[in-house]
Amino acid sequence: MSRVGIVFISHSEKIAMGLKELVTQVIKDVPIEAAGGTEDGGIGTSLEKIQQAIEKVYSDKGVIVLYDLGSSVMNAELAIEVTGLEHVKIADAPLVEGGYVAAVESGMGKPLDEVLLAVEEVRMKLKRNE
Amino acid sequence: MMGLTNEHLAKWLEKTNAKIQENKTFLTNLDQAIGDGDHGINMSRGFDEAVKKISSTEYKTSSDLLKDWAMTLLSKVGGASGPLYGTALLKFSMSMKDKEEVDYSSLTAGIEEGLNGLIQRGQAQEGHKTMVDVWSPVVTFLKEQPAFNPEGFKEIAKEAMEKTKDMKAIKGRAAYLKERSIGHLDPGSVSSYYLFSSLAEVIEEEGVGL
Ligand SMILES: [Mg+2]
Q1: Is-contact A8 A66, C-beta < 8 A?
Q2: Are the beta carbons of B140 and B183 closer than 8 angstroms?
Q3: Which of A22, A46, A116, B49 is 20 to 30 A away from residue A9, measured at CA?
Q4: A102 C-alpha vs ligand 1 centroid, how far in Å?
Q5: Where in chain A are the domains?
Q6: CB A46 to CB B38 under 8 A?
Q7: Residue B134 CA, ligand 1 centroid: distance in Å
Q8: Catalytic annotation on A87?
Q9: Given A37, A38, A70, which is nearest B172 (Cβ)?
Q10: B18 C-alpha to ligand 1 centroid (Å)
């Protein structure tokens, strides 16, 4: 059964890869790709890397994209436009917590809209107090 | 000869690139003050690549040339300026589809489309201390004038760029600094000034009828 694919975009290659490592330690049956850093691994984002990552995890279930700082969302939008794929959503949520929630929800077999909702709810939750 | 030819557009790109290379450290220093310090490096890499691409390709239409310029920036600039300049030039290119030459009204429309692209992509408005603060008054000026006025055009772009110094950043990396962003020029506005002053200089030097 296919799951919602997940892409982590960060200005840092290490952050994106590290988050993928963190999440896949627990959730193993969800397609996850890291798209961090520029083409040559520097700080920044790469349209091509993001595009390839989206294509790699894409299925009929769709893809959810998470990003770190402001400007990476512009390359995320462009990548979606360039691939021309439908069912790709950008989540407005903290990268680490949102990424973890995305993987858990996707792993439960939930559809794209529900995963997105759960991820964006992360914004409202305090980490220490209920 | 009326209007901007592909040769003029290529000269515009080369001139802008020369200014960026000359001021690479300046742009980086500006970005170090209120951003992430990559503007000079990113712009110099992206524009260098764009010059290489465009000088080695034959173009049938101005739309195709502008598109390659845009696509090169999109893929070669790692920072925020890649998607922003890339989107603006791509919109300009799209507005030139099916047009034979870049006359005054299509140049105005092209830069206005570029501005709309910037606003949509960057979600910024005037006064947010971004490139929009240069592009927007430039478009207004173009629309007010009956024909291209190189001196006035350069002056408007320069004034607009200088005004960003006293603004508080609302968008971009500088926004994290809030009040501390005041007193520094916006790097993207400075590079936009290079872009527009280069355009005016090419039109003047080449005696383009606009
Ligand atoms: Mg920067």
Answers
A1: yes
A2: no
A3: B49
A4: 29
A5: 5-128
A6: no
A7: 17
A8: no
A9: A70
A10: 20
Name, in order, each residue with C-beta under 8 angstroms of B206's C-beta and a sequence gap of 6 or more: B8, B11
Q: Residue A78 and residue B174: Cα distance in Å, rounded?
A: 22
CA distance to A78, B81, B99, B110, B113, per residue, from B96 (Å): 21, 22, 5, 7, 10
* B145 touches B107 (CB < 8 A): no
The tens place of each residue's pLDDT in chain B, 210 residues long, gives 579 999 999 999 999 999 999 999 999 999 999 998 999 999 999 999 999 999 999 999 999 999 999 999 999 998 899 999 999 999 999 999 978 789 999 999 999 999 999 999 999 999 999 999 999 999 999 999 999 999 999 999 999 999 999 999 999 989 999 999 999 999 999 999 999 999 999 999 999 988
Cα gap A129→B205, rounded to integer Å = 66
The verdict on B80 touching A (C-beta cutoff 8 Å) is yes
Residues of A in contact with B74 (CB under 8 A): 47, 78
Among residues A3, A11, A49, A61, the one annotated as catalytic is A11
Closest residue to A42, CB basis, from B78, B83, B171: B78
Instruction: Tell me the C-alpha distance between B10 and B53, whole Å.
Output: 10
- What are A82's two structure tokens? 């360039």
DSSP state of B124: -
User: SS3 of A84, please?
Assistant: coil
The token pair that represents A37 in the structure block? 């850093």
Please tell me the class of the A5-128 domain: alpha beta
Domains, chain B = 6-201 (1.25.40.340)
> A46: which chain B residues are within 8 Å (Cβ-Cβ)?
75, 78
Residue B67 in tokens: 């598109």
Distance in angstroms (rounded) separating the CA atoms of residues A51 and A57? 10
Nearest chain B residue to A68 by CA: give it. Answer: B173
List CB contacts (< 8 A) between B121 and chain A. Answer: 74, 77-78
